[in-house]
Model the fold of this input.
Amino acid sequence: MSQTPHPYDPTHRHLEHLHGEHCGLCRIEVDHVTVVAQGDTLLQDVCLHLHCGQLTALVGPNGAGKTTLVRALLSQIPYSGRIRHMDDKERVLHSVRTGYVPQQLPFDKMMPVTVTDFLAASLTRRPVWTGVSKKTRSQVRDVLSLAQAERLSGRMLGQLSGGELQRVLLAMALTPIPDLLVLDEPVSGVDQNGLYLFLDTVEQLKRRHHMAILLISHDWSLVRQYADEVVLLNKTVLCEGTPETVFGCETFRQAFPAVKKEVE
Amino acid sequence: MDAVYSVMDTLLPFAPFRYAFMKNALLALLFLTPLLALLGTMAVNKRMAFFSDALGHSALAGVGIGVLLGVSNVTVILVAFGICWALLITRINRTGGASSDTTISVFSSAGIALGLLILSGSGKYGKYSSILVGDILAVTPADILCLGIALAAGVALWVMMYNRLLLMAINPQLAQSRGIPVKAVEYGFVILVAVAVMLSIRWVGVLLINALLILPAAAARNVARSAAQHALLSVIISLFSGFAGLCASVPLGTSVGAAVVLCAAVCYALSLLAARLLRVRLQA
Done:
């Protein structure tokens, strides 16, 4: 892409306070997960693996249960079946850190809250109305630098553009550095160029921190360019594999007849 | 108390403040307005102005129930009733059904009606009608001590829960995804507001209490550009209104609460003007 990432301290020593101890997650196994809510089956027998260091794109028509799957992964809703977090020695991990970038953030744009207030409120216990300490300010800058958004620190949250807000939300999802990062259609309301820059940042994060990334997206060219794996979901997994495999499979063509041309 | 009075005599060598009741009123205002102003910043951000209004109105019902039970200490029954009422409104809003402003309106009118019913029926309306407008000039040193303790405890709790509340005010789902116990913090906040409102209501009055909670924070919000500015300006405006209102009420011979609230309303008008000027300068 047009913008090259700026040079970075390869040891990331300055970011150690954000990491804590790495949990050694290797993959997330979703085994026969079914979600039923008020008599409706939202997910039926879903099986898939999410691997660390890979970006998995979750695609599917509206109402396919993509957000439901995310909520199950974040343990926000009850489900039957099993979701396990495995390390590289095939041991089960009991806690993994997840970071979640919401689809959009409806909030009161007039609220007098700066980007620094917003991030400091999630980093420290010291109430931000008493001011933000120097130490926390530099911590906030480090966090924003992960999403290449340092320059936004002094701005009011309500005055950010869609793309800028997305980066601030990404920065928040990266504190502490998660083992699983979920991007819930993170690109709505962002211009095309900003969108690719955003995914470039995500790709660097993937390489640098070896996290598992789940991306919900309808942007096929984006999925083709950035996804290592694609999962086509409609209540259950219809098709999975590399972008080429999934875009080529018959069920995908049936589910999205209109996008056939765009993909090829 | 005498030491405090002599300090005040040195700082405020004005005729009205020769009287102990004026000193007491000033001290009470200096204790209760900042806490209300701080809580107000979040009540405004969370769009709860109507909620706190309903809470204030329910004080009438609290007094009524106190009379029925024959409890002599009005404050205790007010605080207990306020907490129950606040929790009930929040609970019913969470479970849904009608929109939140409808629910709150129901609680607001029910609180007033219940209070009037009991007080008029028991023939004690005259005795307790003063709670409608409050009387800060009647505050005693013991009451001031109680307000001081409430201020300290309120600010301490406020320090503990503020950051989580701020994230919730921005977006509750996001706050939840970051592991914040949204429900518990929400209940904690409404309890804190209920206690602060009920402790102040005897002095400020049912009709005006919400103004002290909302007006300073709303005025500050027009010009503040960060959370710290919002809190600081809100407290400054509330302290200024409290002091100016008390001073103005003496020569005018009017109710103190009314003068304080009008001062805060003038501050709000000025803040609107300031916000417009700021915007013009930013655009230029």
Q: What stands out?
A: The mean pLDDT of chain B is 90. The CA atoms of residues 25 and 137 of chain B lie 5 Å apart. The domain at 23-207 of chain B is CATH 1.10.3470.10 (ABC transporter involved in vitamin B12 uptake, BtuC).
